[in-house]
Structures are given as C-alpha cells and as structure tokens.
Amino acid sequence: MIKLMLFIDGTWLYSNTPRLVEASGEPGFMLDFGKLPRVLADEVSRQLGHLEYTVVRTHLFGSYADNVDPRDNEPVQRRLNFFSMLRQQHHYEIEAFPINYRGNRLRKTDRDPAGNFEPKEKCVDIALATSMLFNAAMPNAYDVAIAVLGDQDFKPVLQSVRRLGKRVAIASVQGACSSEYSDPSDQVRVRDLDLIWLEDLLPRLARRYDPHPLECQSPTHKGERTVMTTYYPKRGEKFYCEACRDAFSRIKQDTGEAAQEARPIRWAPTGTALSGLVSHKRMDKGYGFIRVEGCGEWDGPEYFFHDSDITDNISFLELPEGERVDFEVKAEPPAGKAPPARNVRRTGAGPA
User: Which residue pairs, CB below 8 angstroms and at least 24 apart, start in 207-212?
Assistant: First the structure.
C-alpha cells in the first residue's frame, strides 16, 4: 500500500477558483474540498498502477486578513470559518498566517487612493516547502507527495523531495501553472507522473447537493420528522423542512407583514443601478434573490441572481443572506418571475 500526502497552496488555489468555474461551464460550480484529496489520490493511484493506497495527511497553507477596518470583519470571519470547516469536517491540517492590514479596508477599491498600503502575505510558501521537505525526511511518512500549486518558486523543494527518494505528483490549473511544471519532458525534474490538470477532474470535484435524510427541528412540525432534502445545514444550524418554512411564511402573511407589498410592483428599467439585501439563497441551485431597499420608487420588489452574476471575487457560498449588495437590472422580468440582476457586488457596509 502506498502512502500519499497532499500539500495545497491554498492562496493560489483560492485565487484561481474563477478559472475552474469558467472551465466547468457550470455557473453555479463549487469546488468540493471534501472530495479533493480522494479524487487526486485516485488519479495518482491510476497513473502508478497501484490499486491500494492511503491518504496520510492533507495539508493546506493559506492566509487571512488581520487588523482590518471593522466594516470588513464579516468577510474575514468567513475565511476563518472556511478554515474551521476544513479542519472539522474534512480533517485538513491547516496552517494559516495573518496579514496585518493596519486598519485598512480589504478591497483596494475601498481604500484611500492617496494611501500606499499594500497587503503582503508572509510565510505561506515557505511553510508549504518546509512541511513537504520535513515529512519527506521522516522515515515512512509518505511515498508520494501530491503538490497542488502552480508557482515556480516551489521548484527547489520539489527537486529536493525527489532527491530524498520520494515521488512527486503535481496538480495545477491551466493558465496558472509554471511552464517548467507543465513541460512534457520535465527537464527540471520536478515530478514523477504526468501533470494533473484540475480542469480534467472537475466533474468529480463538483460539490453536489444529493438528496439525503435530515430531521426537521421545527416545534410545529407534523408527521414523520425525518425528510429527504438537498440542503446541508451549517454546523450548529437548525434544519426546518420545506413544509414548516412555507407554514412560517403563511403566518407572516396572515399577520400582515406582507401586506405592505400588496401595492402594484414597478420593476426598474434594464440597466438601472440598485441596492438591496440578499433575502434568500437556494444553496442547492446556486441562485438567490435581492430585496431592493433604499432606492426610492423602486423599493420592495425582489430581483433574481445566479452565482455567475457575482462580480466581487467571492463565491456564492461566501455571500450570506442579509448582505447588502449593489447590482444592475439585467433584463425585463420573465412572465410571473422576478427580473434578473447582474454585476452583483457587496457595498462594503457588511450584513444588515
């Protein structure tokens, strides 16, 4: 049985996620980090001709913003929650290093143009290289290192790991991979297998919301509590079945909370810039709705948006309900449906 160990440059992988979304052809595509180690291990096993293997560890190296402007605390917490999810649910070994923002905003466009602050990531690359080399020097720690990266800076450590008698497999993204790694002849001698393109594995790496049983926790639930659903609650989140959610919506309407929306709806013309709150998301479908607020005569109606309509360098998963966003009207409303939005982006005010 061969022993495999993964070393993932998390910062590089995160920054290249849009490339994978585009390559997938699925606007709502999300990379399933729970599947990533197994899918890569299967590919390495296939190339080596070994049917039996074990994934000893999965290491991910990344960074997070620290000492930011208080208005950006929420996205920082999302990144930390993501790391916690990888640890708790998928047993990743996480090494995350803070980037001191000195009280500045996360996005460059939100900072003072006259300022000269530029965030600088420290330790991530050297931590990955050190871990890979340290484990290679440990007797029987692993037989094959699977390196998920693309930066040329890792060439020396990949060469050194091979000199220690370990095999190296590289998984990367087209357009974000050093030409020395992708060279078919491997003149710099950094790998022992054909380079693995993540684009070729996307159907197996996609996060799917398959139906599964969950117990409804609504105190007013009637009948069998265990129902089939495609929803995956967050850790500590209570799950309510669709029937209970619909009943709650009817109660709101009966008590008059929806009466204010009984006036005729006036949709904004195509191209109109609006602002509102993310009111509801369908995680299993990759779409959601924005309730318009603070836009005068257009207040009230909801607009439909898809994951592909987000232009804020964040994924659909990272845009929480309650977040205030800016957007533009994409087209006239289809019959009986909400009109679509485009260029959806956070306003920087944080969740309402």
Answer: 207/30, 207/31, 207/32, 207/35, 208/32, 209/283, 209/284
Q: Based on the domain organization, do 57 and 172 belong to the same domain? A: yes
Asked if 158 and 175 sit in the same domain, the reply is yes
Residue identified by tokens 């020396």 is 156
Instruction: Identify whether residues 281 and 236 lie together within a single domain.
Output: no
Q: 105: which residues sit within 8 A by CB, 6+ positions away?
A: 68, 69, 71, 72, 111, 348
User: How many domains does the chain fold into?
Assistant: 3
What's the pTM value of the predicted model, to 2 decimals? 0.63
- Would you say the C-alpha torsion 4, 9, 13, 14 has a positive or negative sign? positive
Contact 325, 344 (CB under 8 A): yes
Q: What is the C-alpha separation between 33 and 62, in angstroms, rounded?
A: 14
**Which of left, alpha, beta for 156 (phi over 0: left; psi -120 to 50: alpha)?**
alpha
pLDDT in tens, the chain (352 residues): 999 999 999 999 999 988 998 998 877 788 899 999 999 999 999 999 988 999 999 999 999 999 999 888 888 888 898 898 899 888 999 999 999 999 999 988 888 888 888 998 889 999 999 999 999 999 999 999 999 999 999 999 999 999 999 999 999 999 999 999 999 999 999 999 999 999 999 999 988 766 778 889 888 888 898 988 867 665 556 788 888 887 776 665 665 544 444 445 678 888 888 988 888 887 767 788 888 876 766 666 789 898 888 888 888 888 888 888 899 998 888 766 788 899 999 886 444 3
The reply to whether 147 and 242 lie within a common domain is no
CATH code, domain carrying 39: 3.40.50.1010
Q: Which residues pair with 345 in a beta bridge?
A: 326
Q: What is the CATH number of the domain that holds 332?
A: 2.40.50.140
User: d(Cα 131, Cα 13) in Å, to the nearest integer?
Assistant: 18
CB contact at 8 A, 231 and 209: yes
- The answer to whether residues 329 and 192 belong to one domain is no
The reply to whether 216 and 325 lie within a common domain is no
Task: Provide the residue range defining the domain that includes 255.
Answer: 212-259
